[in-house]
Amino acid sequence: xxxxxxxxxxxxxxxxxxxxxxxxxxxxxxxxxxxxxxxxxxxxxxxxxxxxxxxxxxxxxxxxxxxxxxxxxxxxxxxxxxxxxxxxxxxxxxxxxxxxxxxxxxxxxxxxxxxxxxxxxxxxxxxxxxxxxxxxxxxxxxxxxxxxxxxxxxxxxxxxxxxxxxxxxxxxxxxxxxxxxxxxxxxxxxxxxxxxxxxxxxxxxxxxxxxxxxxxxxxxxxxxxxxxxxxxxxxxxxxxxxxxxxxxxxxxxxxxxxxxxx
Length: 262
Known about the structure:
Number of domains: 2
Largest sheet: 5 strands, mixed
Helix content: 25-40%
Number of helices: 7
Distance between the termini: 42 Å
Structural class: alpha+beta
Oligomer: single chain
Radius of gyration: 23 Å
Strand content: 15-25%
C-alpha cells in the first residue's frame, strides 16, 4: 500500500563518516538506497515459502497465470501447456523446484536498492537506535501519493510469520511481498520503503524542495547543532529547523523551533 500521509522521516547520526553522509542529504539532496544484504535484521528481505505447496494448487494457479499472460490460447493449447510444465516439475521434484525458485528470487532481491523511512519522528526507541541515543537528527520529507520520489513509498506490514506467497505470482509481486513484510517485533518503526528495481543500491538524487524539516536530537551536542543549522541555512529551499526536548517527569519529547541561544 502506498503512503498517503503528508510526511515521512529518516533518522540519522553524525558519528564518523555518517557525518558527511548526513550533510550530503541536507546540502546536496542525495539519499542512499541500501542493499538488502546489509540490513541489521537477519530475517529481513529473506525468501521463505511456507510449507503449503501442493501440486494441485500449483497446477490451478499456473493455469490461471497462463490465461492472464497468454489470453489467446484456446482450451486445448492451455491444457497442453500446463501438462508440459507439470512434467518438468514432476521430473525436478517439489523440493528442488522450491529450492531453485527460492535461490533465484533471493538473488534478484539482493540486487535491489531499498530506502527505509518512517511514518513517525517522535518515537523514543527510533531516536535511540538510529539517531545514536538522541544525539543525531531526524529528517522530514514531504511525502504524499502525488509527490515525486517519496510518493513511491510503500508500507511495511508486520506479521507473526513469513507471508504466504504464491509460487505462481510474478517475480515483482513476490519481491514486494518479502521486501514489505517484517516480524511483529519491529512494528514500532512504522516503516515505509522505496524500492529501486531498476538501478539497485546507491546514491539517488531527490527533489531538494521535498526536505521540509530537520529535527535535532534531544541530546545533540551544541556544536553539532550549529553545524547542522549552517547546512540548513545554505539550502536553496526554506527548511524548518526544530529541536527535541525531554519533557520532565514524562517518557516523552516535545518539539520547538531551534533557538541557538537556549
